[in-house]
Amino acid sequence: MRKAKIFSAFLFLFFLAINPGLAETSGHSKHKTSTKHATSTKHATSTKHARSSKHATSNKHAASKGGSAKHHYPRRHRANRSQGPTVEEVPQEIFPPGHKFTPEEKAQASELGAMAQNGMWKEAFKAATKAGKEHPERWWLQAARAVAASNLNRPKDTIEAVNLAIQNNAGDANRLNLAQLYTLRANAFSRLGRRSDALNDFQSAIRLSKTDPICRAGAAWLYATSADPQIRNGASAVALATEAAKLTQWKDDTVLDVLAAAYAEAGDFSSAQKWEEKAILLGSQQDVPFYQRRLQSYQSAKAWRENSN
User: What tens digit of pLDDT does each residue of 155-193 get?
Assistant: First the structure.
């Protein structure tokens, strides 16, 4: 199974808030996997993700005012052979109104942001761990640690860090921040095979954010493909995947891949083939082979399972 890399706004937004000029100089944030252009809706994941100058300017403007910038959801949530869409980049939002960085926090945020920009996840994990021990009240350090741990495929560390961030934010984290944290932890639970716990966290994220497609797609994937029949629920999978598809304007291949899996679980293989074919048309060279295997399964009237080959 390919690893899903998580480039989080928990780090990038700090760097942007402390160094707003970056918004004008980093027109494109490149990752190892491929992607298409970014959406401008209110994530989660990308690989070669393009940010529009208009959105960058709005982030800069909001940061200068100390308020919340409008966030957007990158289109990429890379699908794996047996693991559905996985967050590679979460929604971007500047800190809640009223949050003020101390000079020391600015230095920490800038350092972590620079590491994130350069994919230095081991260094980011070590720095966030050390700083978090010295300042446990700074919940965002634990959030940064969770992101780095996710990129290093360390789900237990991700869960521990998210737990601390949720416990210690003292109301500073807004609803979107919390939704991001729950989504991070849900993916970690999923990697550990703790599907029920993952679903609970995805549902918590869904309640917190009405506009986040990723937690909805994540929950839909589990409802559609889990090997546990007590978890599978075709109707819930279709409903959530449809919401996610609408939120991504029906243009995100990995969300459409989830929608196809949902229809297959519901027994509608015609719709499953339709949406998988659309995912193939939109998909990257890296993801298309996985979509094609699922399409073959639906053509044989077989629902996809997390342990399918």
Answer: 999 999 999 999 998 888 888 889 989 999 999 999 999
* Residues in the chain, overall count: 309
Contacts for 274 with CB less than 8 Å, ≥ 6 apart: 260
CA–CA distances in Å: residue 204 to residues 54, 198, 201? 31, 10, 5
Q: What are 88-107's pLDDT values in tens digits?
A: 443 344 345 556 778 888 88
Whether residue 305 is contained in a domain is answered as no
Count of domains observed in the chain:
1
Which among 129, 103, 93, 132 is positioned nearest to 12, based on CA atoms?
A: 93
Q: Model's pTM, two decimal places? A: 0.73
Q: Which CATH number does the domain housing residue 229 bear?
A: 1.25.40.10
For 191-236, give the secondary structure using H, E and C.
HCCCHHHHHHHHHHHHHHCCCCHHHHHHHHHHHHHCCCCCCCCHHH
